[in-house]
TrEMBL record:
Protein's UniProt keywords contain Nucleotide-binding: yes
Annotated coiled-coil segments of the chain: none
Name the record gives this protein: Ras and ef-hand domain-containing protein
Sorted UniProt keywords: Nucleotide-binding
Length: 169
């Protein structure tokens, strides 16, 4: 019997970068082009089995639309992990991700582990280079991964990497 630990995780990032799609890919292993934009926030829980313990993730997937911005502190405030998502085909979404990093660092749980996650790597029209994002992540002391919720590539690896980085208790 592995011991279990509960981790509160939040998804942040501009609208339409694919936050909900990444969560659905991880939790249900499915994908839809026709997913609805999130209203407020959506809660999901799931488990990640690590080498010697089970991480129970309580996931808050927030709405990226600006009108919901004022609600986000109640979701990130006592999170121990955060995915800050951008779309690799959108330079604006990468800038917005950096704003989220600043907001979390100044207003959020001080020791939360933050992963910068570039989504939609299945698309050809990439504008945010992997090396640029990786360098920013390194300099800012963030975990970093890229994925595609559509193909599933990199999604599990990103969750495992963040889950493993969170101290138990
Ligand atoms: P908000 O809820 O408004 O904050 O948006 P979101 O970040 O949750 O984005 P959502 O998951 O709703 O996805 C937005 C659109 O991008 C949808 O049409 C998805 O099907 C599409 N999408 C999400 N992930 C990917 C991906 O990896 N590749 C491609 N090609 N499309 C994706
Ligand atoms: Mg959403």
């Amino acid at each position: 019997e592995k011991e279990t630990f509960q981790f509160k995780i939040v998804f942040l990032g501009e609208s339409a970068v694919g936050k909900s799609s990444v969560v659905i890919r991880f939790v249900r292993n499915s994908f839809s082009e026709k997913i609805e934009s999130t209203i407020g926030a959506t809660y999901t829980n799931t488990e990640v089995s690590l080498d010697d313990y089970i991480a129970k993730l309580q996931i808050w997937d927030t709405a990226g639309q600006e009108r919901y911005h004022s609600l986000t502190p109640m979701y990130y405030r006592n999170s121990v992990g955060a995915f800050i998502v951008y779309d690799v085909t959108s330079a604006d979404s990468f800038v917005r991700a950096q704003d989220w990093v600043h907001e979390l660092r100044s207003q959020g749980a001080k020791n939360a582990k933050i992963m910068l996650l570039g989504n939609k790597i299945d698309l050809q029209e990439r504008v945010v280079k992997e090396e640029v994002a990786m360098k920013y992540a390194e300099e800012s002391n963030l975990l970093y991964a890229e994925c595609s919720a559509k193909s599933g590539l990199g999604v599990n690896a990103a969750f495992l990497k963040l889950a493993k980085s969170i101290p138990k208790e």
